[in-house]
Recover the amino acids of this structure.
């Protein structure tokens, strides 16, 4: 577990923005986000990192970042949450939100 936390902290500490999808296996809207995130990742390429965090397997991470519902999407830059929103979004919406942080 601690290796995951360290890796996550290292990952979000960089200059490159990291888009995090806090999700749960049982969540219907979370399943809708999977193809959207895949499309979004194709669009942004190496400009941003996209990762998924299962809130049931990582409750401490969810609690640390104030995730109250799933899916919650967050953008981290230099270890700080610069944007966060609960709910399903389109790839285009995500891209426009990410733009200022690139």
């Amino acid at each position: 577990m601690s290796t995951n936390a360290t890796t996550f902290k290292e990952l979000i500490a960089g200059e490159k923005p990291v888009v995090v999808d806090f999700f749960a296996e049982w969540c219907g809207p979370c399943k809708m986000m999977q193809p959207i995130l895949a499309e979004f990742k194709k669009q942004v390429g190496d400009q941003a990192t996209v990762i998924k965090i299962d809130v049931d397997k990582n409750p401490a991470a969810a609690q640390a970042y104030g995730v109250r519902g799933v899916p919650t999407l967050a953008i981290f830059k230099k270890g700080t949450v610069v944007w966060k929103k609960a709910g399903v979004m389109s790839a285009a919406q995500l891209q426009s939100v990410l733009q200022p942080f690139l």
User: Anything to note?
Assistant: The radius of gyration is 13 Å. Residues 28-44 form the longest helix (17 residues).
